[in-house]
Amino acid sequence: DIQMTQSPSSLSASIGDRVTITCRASESITDYLNWYQQKPGKAPRLLVFGASRLQSGVPSRFSGSGSETDFTLTISGLLPEDFATYYCQQSYGTSYTFGQGTKLEIK
Amino acid sequence: QVELQESGPGLIKPSETLSLTCTVSGGSISGFFWNWIRQAPGKGLEWIGYMYYSGSTNYNPSLDSRVTISIDTSKNQFSLELKSVTAADTGVYFCARVAETDYYYYMDVWGKGTTVTVSS
Questions:
Q1: Is the model's pLDDT at A91 over the cut of 90?
Q2: Which residues in chain B have their CB less than 8 angstroms from residue A57's CB?
Q3: B89: helix, coil or strand?
Q4: Do residues B95 and B77 lie in contact, with contact meaning Cβ atoms separated by under 8 Å?
Q5: How confident is the model at residue B57 (pLDDT cuts 50, 70, 90)?
Q6: Cβ contact (<8 Å) for A34 and B58?
Q7: pLDDT of residue B53
Q8: Which one of A19, A27, B82, B94 has the minimum C-beta count within 10 Å?
Q9: What's the longest Cα–Cα distance across chain A?
Q10: Which residues between 19 and 78 in chain A have a beta carbon less than 8 angstroms from any beta carbon of chain B?
Q11: C-alpha distances out from residue B114 to A7, A36, A41, B110, Å
C-alpha cells in the first residue's frame, strides 16, 4: 500500500499569512495527488487535483505543486474561512489513501 | 448539479452487518466510480472502497474481507455492506463520486455523511 504522510499535523497562522502544507508519499505517485479541505461537521471539499490543477470554483490563493513523492499545498493570504483541516490523497494505484490531515488554526 | 445522500441505520450492534445506501440525484450513475469513505470520531479520512458503474470493485486491503459495495443503476444508487462490525467501525460514513480529467482521478462530489454508532 502507498502511505501518505502530511506535515505538520497542526499549524497556527494569522489572517493574511502564507502557509505551506507538505505531503509525502511512500513511493512515487507521479502527480496523482489531490488536496481536500474539511470543516467541522462537513464533508471534504476538493481543492486541487493532479498535484497542481485547481478545481473549478476554488480561489486562486490556493495552489498545489510537487511530483513523485513530495507535494505541497500553499495558501497565500489566509482568510478566516481557510481555517480548517486539509488532507492529501493519492489516486495513483487502484487503492486510494489519504494523509492523516493538517489542522490549520488561527494564531 | 449532482448531489449525493447517504441513508441507513444510525445505530447497530456489534457483530451485525452495517448497510448504507447512497442515492445519486441530478445526474447519472453511469460512467463514474463511486466511493465510500469513513471518519472515526476526531480522526482522519479512511478510504473504504469504490465500485465502477459497470461493476468492477476495489477495496481497502485492511477492510477487504468484510466489505461489499454494490450498485443499482436502475435506482441511481450504490450501497455499502460492512460485516461483523465492532466499536472501531463507529464514525461518519461519506459517499463520493470519482471524476476523471486527463487520467487524473479525484473525488469531486460528496454526500453530507451519515453517522453510524456501533454499540450494544
A1: yes
A2: none
A3: helix
A4: no
A5: very high
A6: no
A7: 85
A8: A27
A9: 39
A10: 31-32, 34, 36, 38, 42-46, 49-50, 53, 55
A11: 29, 19, 11, 12
d(CA B46, CA B58): 14
Residue B86 CB burial class (10 angstroms; 0-12, 13-18, ≥19): exposed
CB half-sphere exposure, A44, CA atoms < 13 A = 31
| Residue B50's pLDDT band (cuts 50, 70, 90) | very high
Omega prior to A8 cis, within 30 of 0: yes
Alpha-carbon distance B66 to B114, whole Å?
19
What number is the average pLDDT over the span A30-44?
Answer: 98
pLDDT tens digits along B17-43: 999 999 999 999 999 999 999 999 999
Q: What pLDDT score does A42 carry?
A: 98
Calpha distance B6→B20 (Å, rounded): 7
